[in-house]
Amino acid sequence: GDLGERRSAAFQTLYSPGHKVELAATTLGPRIPGMQAYHTSVVVDEIEFSFSFDGVTHGPGLLSHKHLPNGPPAVTYMGLTSISGKQMLENMRSNFKRGSYDLLRKNCNSFSDCALFYLLDVRLDPSYRGLEKIGHAADKNVRLVQTVSGGEYTPNREADGFEVEDVIRRVNKDKQKEFETR
Potential cystine with 11: which of 7, 41, 83, 147 (Cβ 3.0-4.6 Å)? Predict the structure, then answer.
């Protein structure tokens, strides 16, 4: 995205101590090239932030990955930012409320994408979102996912209307305003 005249939070760390940002990712299910499912979370200064049915949770360690059979997660250094994990949580919480999780339309990867953009002005690599994009498109058009899952997946009405790109646009606008008032 175009940041306009504002400097990214990553750039601002040149002048002040930064907060370390990492991405934790664990594969889910069988390894299928191009359609791999992942559970992702964002780690800021050793505190993990993840999104689930409980909303955004945070704490030390990589607790959201502990129960997954394909662990431990791959942890990737993403950069330094002037934004704290607490600031990110306060900004993201209203978009990722308890009870609004949807396996295909509003999940951990949606949160990680938005959190990384808020913290570093970078997006989650699309390869982490391959399966849910295919699944969401199929479900939208022919209810294929519901059929294949034997009805196990049902869309969460609390996620209706949620679009990652809307959150990204709002974050960019908010950060632009903040930059202009400095």
Answer: 7
